[in-house]
Amino acid sequence: MxxxxxxxxxxxxxxxxxxYRLVTGIVSIFFLHxxxxxxxxxxxxxxxxxxxxxxxxxxxxxxxxTLGFVGLAxxxxxxxxxxxxxxxxxAIVMSILSMIHFPxxxxxxxxxxxxxxxxxxxxxxxxxxxxSRPGF
Length: 136
Fold this sequence. Notes:
Layout: H1 2-35, H2 53-81, H3 87-98, H4 104-116, H5 119-128
Helix pairs in contact: 1-2, 1-4, 2-3, 3-4
Transmembrane segments: 12-35, 55-81, 93-117
Keywords: Membrane, Transmembrane, Transmembrane helix
């Protein structure tokens, strides 16, 4: 009964995590953009475009990882909420990846693994999975 009791909460938490990652990603992109333009803080700011070119190089990486994590978190939330057969596997993979985002991602990853990882949870999820709709 662990899966049935916690599945809807888990789907909602993954949706909230997607919003959290989007907001923190936008804030970090804003600061990276701000630190790479001369004149924003004057010529004496140590992270100006001439002082640290690696900061500007981080921008595409930050955008791609933010969008990737947000998209996958939304996909996990949808898969669990709709009880799709692939939802459990995707959630377990994403829970492991999200653990690097301490403390929120770590807590969500541990909770997801606690709910979905045991073998008994696999059998329970399979019994409640919605296989009536093909595809996504």
